[in-house]
Specification:
The complex is a heterodimer of chains A (98) and B (452).
Chain A (H helix, E strand, L loop, with lengths): L2 H5 L3 E8 L5 H11 L3 E10 L2 E9 L7 H15 L2 E6 L1 H7 L2
Antiparallel strand pairs in A: 1-3, 1-4, 2-3
Chain B lengths: L3 H12 L4 E9 L9 H15 L3 H12 L3 E8 L2 H5 L8 H14 L4 E7 L6 H16 L3 E9 L3 E3 H17 L11 E5 L20 E8 L1 H11 L4 H30 L3 E5 L12 H7 L10 H19 L3 E2 L12 H8 L5 H7 L7 E7 L4 H17 L4 E8 L7 E3 L6 E3 L9 H4 L4 E2 L9
Parallel strand pairs in B: 1-2, 2-3, 3-4, 4-6, 7-8, 8-9, 10-11
Antiparallel strand pairs in B: 1-7, 4-5, 5-14, 6-11, 12-13
Helix pairs in contact in B: 2-5, 3-9, 5-6, 6-7, 7-14, 8-9, 8-10, 9-11
Chain lengths: 98, 452
Amino acid sequence: MTNQQETAGSRVIVSVLGEDRVGIIAAVANILADNNINILDISQTTMQEFFTMILIADMEKSKIDLAALKVQLGQLGEKLGLKIDAQHEAAFRYMHRL
Amino acid sequence: MFTIQEILETIKMVQEENLDIRTITMGISLRDCADSSVRQACQKIYDKITRLASNLVAVGDSLEREFGIPIVNKRISVTPIAMIAENTAADDYTAFALTLDRAAAEVGVNFIGGFSALVHKGFTGGDEKLLASIPQALAATERVCASVNVASTRAGINMDAVYRMGKIVKETAELTADHDGLGCAKLVVFANVPEDNPFMAGAFHGVGEPECVINTGVSGPGVVKSAVEKLGDADFGTLSETIKKTAFKITRMGELVGRAAAERLGVPFGIVDLSLAPTPAVGDSVAEILEAMGLERCGTHGTTAALALLNDAVKKGGAMASSYVGGLSGAFIPVSEDAGMIRAVNEGALTIEKLEAMTCVCSVGLDMIAVPGDTTAETIAAIIADEAAIGVVNNKTTAVRIIPAPGKVVGDTVEFGGLLGRAPVMPLNNYGAAKFVRRGGRIPAPINSLRN
């Protein structure tokens, strides 16, 4: 694998943190679907009364770039009272995988 | 794929424990900018820096957004200016400092390092002129950082340079007296200086470096502190192991960001500096890590041992995380930039003598220390000589960044603001060393320099 692929790639991690309520997953999935971003994996749990969702998505065929996605998710987060962010998958791969 | 715990660990490091990339530093060679005309040389320097670094800040900002990790500073280091400026007939090199300042402002970086000279064995004509220009250059510019290497294990200690730097530090403080001697915060005196250090104020682009390169420095004292606190009363082996694992994770972020920045800027990736760099923010403190290990206050008995363990574990964990390691690589102990250090000084736990001992086992030296304004040039030179001796004999980098704050006395506080923080004025030994530092000449290289 070249360095280019190691730090580029098209996968992102979407994280949602906050109080649980109806429709969180649907709202996030809608934004992704509207922008042609494919969901690869999704997991959720409740930790210390906080709803936590982690979603791995592929932006290869996305209509928008990561910066624009972050803005859209951030706006949704504000509306729902949650913290929603998207980060490049490499940040997690570098830290947690050899 | 990743577990939720892993994802949250990373997010928590950034959001709660101040994990960040302290700096992406672009090293730029100015060797092809030498010219007999000052005007021409300065124009070439300005053009080259603004051309190569034009995207540095934009790339840094976009990486920050994509990876979700703050990149606090984007900076530039250049070939030691003495080597470029000495091709001109000028006696005063302030014009070169002003050019660096303008270029840094144009590309949007907050510091540019390399108003430097390497004089560990002696001075060239250009070195002498550069040293003489330092006080004025630092007073006349905002972003320029100066450094001078006065000693090395192979050459010994150039005591003429040490004494001269004592006087230059004083003069720099006086010329920036209206800002509490702020100029001295941008002036580092080194022994065994590394040529690929990304951290200011001591960064410059060494002569063995390529045309242009990206080096990174990470910062994560808060993450280490939090990991140490979670351990409770674990034994030393467990403590060291935990710090190693944490340092590995922190350093991986530096490796990732450095590689990505180098790719996007189209220049080679140089090194990651395995650093633990504190900031004045509470919780982002090296002193607080030592206290979390079980010291009542940083500076008490046991501090040197605790710092030695921390520094070694950071290097062991970090070395595994990066393909190329360099720079200063170790824990920093700058007093003014570390809330825990400031508290320890104010409460009488941490003295300059203990700081000197601590510099034997960590990455730099007496860093960002404010001393009374009436401290003599000879005393400052003697402090520099002591640090240089530690570096030369122990085959390590040491440095002195000391601020004789004009008009201030012990008990006062000096405010620099921002990342430079604030420093309590510390007492020094009242006895002089003037006769010693005035002897002149060079302290020979130690026997352990003969390694061939």
